[in-house]
């Protein structure tokens, strides 16, 4: 009866009867050689590491979480982020302890989405890491969807603020890196505030 009233659909492929199917779970799984270094159009000055392309089940899950309230999809996305962090630690790319700083979001977007999805994914993924949601977008920052690379850069220039200092090594965490404008401005703000930013780790790159 509950399935008839509130039918389940996979957040990755829309298959009925399940919230997250085995096929999408395999597609989202982090391979032994991931995350990979990617090169967004704007270089934040630190490595940008991605767990996969912004396509297929990965893209659908991120969109469903952010735009359609599918909070249950935080769990598989956080599991992928955890695996990526474990790989970086295992390879010696980063050393523990490290602080995870979620990418900034607009306050209006966070309210509409019932909270900051990236911060909540980072909190679920963290094990020994500290999660510090200290980046905020200033008021009147536009949504970057549909903006060109140059427009995105102008949109966020001077718009990211640091609400508290972060000590020690930092990995900035994001859901999707496109042009790299937000990552570049965020890394600059963190470094200006005294943080040692090691890398940007993203669930997907577009």
Automatic annotation (TrEMBL):
InterPro entries: ComF/GntX_DNA_util-trans, PRTase-like, PRTase_dom. This is Phosphoribosyltransferase. It comes from Mycolicibacterium parafortuitum (Mycobacterium parafortuitum). Gene3D superfamilies: 3.40.50.2020. Belongs to the ComF/GntX family. Coiled coil: none annotated.
């Amino acid at each position: 009866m509950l399935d008839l009233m509130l039918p389940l659909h996979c957040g990755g492929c829309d298959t009925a009867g399940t919230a997250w199917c085995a096929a999408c779970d395999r597609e989202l799984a982090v391979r032994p050689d991931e995350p990979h270094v990617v090169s967004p159009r704007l270089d934040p000055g630190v490595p940008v590491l991605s767990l996969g392309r912004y396509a297929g089940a990965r893209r659908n899950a991120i969109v469903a979480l952010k735009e359609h309230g599918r909070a249950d999809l935080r769990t598989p996305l956080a599991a992928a982020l955890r695996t990526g962090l474990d790989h970086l630690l295992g390879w010696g790319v980063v050393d523990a302890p490290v602080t995870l700083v979620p990418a900034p979001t607009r306050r209006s977007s966070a309210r509409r989405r019932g909270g900051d999805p990236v911060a909540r994914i980072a909190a679920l993924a963290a094990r020994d890491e500290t999660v510090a949601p200290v980046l905020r977008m200033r008021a009147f920052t536009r949504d970057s969807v549909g903006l060109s690379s140059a427009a995105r850069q102008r949109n966020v220039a001077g718009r990211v603020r640091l609400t508290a200092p972060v000590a020690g090594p930092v990995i900035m965490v994001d859901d999707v890196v496109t042009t790299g404008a937000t990552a570049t401005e965020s890394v600059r703000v963190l470094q200006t505030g005294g943080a040692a930013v090691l890398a940007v780790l993203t669930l997907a790159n577009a």
